[in-house]
Design goal:
Elements lengths: L8 E5 L6 E6 L2 E6 L3 E6 L2 E8 L4 E2 L4 E5 L3 E2 L4 E2 L1 E3 L5 E4 L10 E4 L5 E4 L7 E5 L5 E6 L5 E6 L4 E4 L16
């Protein structure tokens, strides 16, 4: 019931009490980093804000860390993923699917394009050890594919009827 994701709230839900604690006004697709930051998308940008896990509070002001990521204002997706070591992969914003690139931003600052053999991939999720990523590749029926960084190959993971989306790796 919001006009845009500028009106959205990023918050914490207590599973014990059901209470919601608002952390950030405006934004989408928040992720917690072990470095003590929450990263989230907003208006084709990526922001980071310090977060104290002990007190469960924001400890500073948000900082824009990247511009030009693909965000989807219809469903609140920001097309990025973070590995446990802080590496970032993201999809650049473009005017059409053919113009979108999957970009790898290395911790060293080096930027490289990932050639995954598809013109478009989204809903990216890193394997906890960082050796692979899963992504939804849209089509008549959306399917999940897994890209292996060491072997530089992309394999289809799902083949069930209908759409498959939002891949998530388990910690093990």
């Amino acid at each position: 019931r919001i006009a845009s994701f500028d009106d959205a709230l990023i918050g914490l839900l207590s599973l014990d009490s059901g209470e919601v604690k608002v952390l950030v006004q405006g934004g989408m697709y928040p992720r917690y980093l072990a470095s003590g930051h929450i990263v989230y998308g907003r208006e084709s940008q990526l922001f980071s804000v310090p977060f104290d896990l002990g007190s469960m509070t924001i400890e500073g002001t948000p900082t824009r860390i990247l511009e030009g990521i693909d965000t989807v204002d219809v469903n609140g997706c920001a097309q990025y993923s973070l590995s446990s070591d802080g590496s970032l992969a993201y999809l650049t914003a473009g005017e059409g699917q053919a113009e979108l690139d999957l970009i790898w931003l290395h911790l060293s600052g080096k930027i490289s394009r990932l050639d995954i053999g598809s013109s478009y991939a989204m809903q990216i999720s890193f394997r906890p050890d960082g050796s692979q990523m899963a992504a939804m590749v849209p089509g008549a029926n959306d399917k999940i594919f897994v890209y292996d960084f060491q072997r530089n190959i992309m394999n289809r993971l799902t083949s069930t009827p209908g759409n498959d989306a939002m891949p998530i790796w388990s910690p093990d």
